[in-house]
Amino acid sequence: MESDSGVSVTVACRTLTEAQALLGNVKNAHPISLDVPNQQALDAEVAKHDIVISLIPYTSHATVIKSAIRQKRHVVTTSYVSPAMLELDQLAKGAGITVMNEIGLDPGIDHLYVIKIIEEVHKDSGKTDSFLSYCGGLPAPEDSDNPLGYKSPDLPVERYSIPEGQTILRGTLRYQGFPEFIHEATTDIAGAASASEADLRDAILAKATFDSEGKKRIISGLRWVRIFSDENITPAGNPLDTLCATLKKKMQFEGEHDLVMLQHKFEIENKDGSRKTRTSSLCEYGELKCYFAMAKLVVKVVLGLFTPSSSSNTVNL
């Protein structure tokens, strides 16, 4: 969009300094401070533009869409369609605007390719008996240096139009050990005699059902999170929010690569009764001092390519 002659972009954040930092030296763009709950201010800014790209938390998308309906402006998001957003469907159609959602990586690229394959199978009078889809945004293997192997889904079966499917699964990829750690370590660990490391460790191990190596991994992970530490923490609303705030500090990408992996696997029955397996895979690494793989695939590639076409109510793929 930056290179298109005559296209100007406004970046709105609650604080002006954040908007300025996001823009950097981007041409034809300017930052503003905007508080989304302020309807009058939101409407005024929306009215100045042809398309609104909402990358704020999904709980606020409906507020943005309502403003776009009032001002008859198109909206694009990368988020799943929430019930609050779906309720605005008829109002958006009545206003003659396009509200495009789920146009990123997952959801987004996965939807586009899945529909392409399923339509090809149906066109040849075949059936898709099984569809498996996995996607994960991860640290690159060389930067996966914590016990979780991680740093900082809706299942739209009916939209895929495969009523014949016997198996449909969409999962999230994580490095080995992550599910076991989360499942066991966050399930009812209360009941220790005291807050000492020994008592907490004994209480956790008494409830864990893994073998010796699995238990060692859990304790190692909790020790890394500093669960057993006496250091002061900053409370953040409730225990879960406090834990999330702690993890956010410890799981930053600093001079490191991220990795996105996406794989689809289709089990197909052809018209003549023969069977075949069709697999598609995507593997993308982030670039240092440039785009993270997640940002590249969600915003730069998919959202960036789709947005200009929204103003004409057409999509060219």
Automatic annotation (TrEMBL):
The keyword Amino-acid biosynthesis applies. GO terms for biological process: lysine biosynthetic process via aminoadipic acid. Residues 104-151, 158-298 form the Saccharopine dehydrogenase-like C-terminal domain. The keyword Membrane does not apply. GO terms for molecular function: saccharopine dehydrogenase activity. Residues 7-100 form the Saccharopine dehydrogenase NADP binding domain. Signal peptide: none annotated. This is Saccharopine dehydrogenase / Homospermidine synthase.
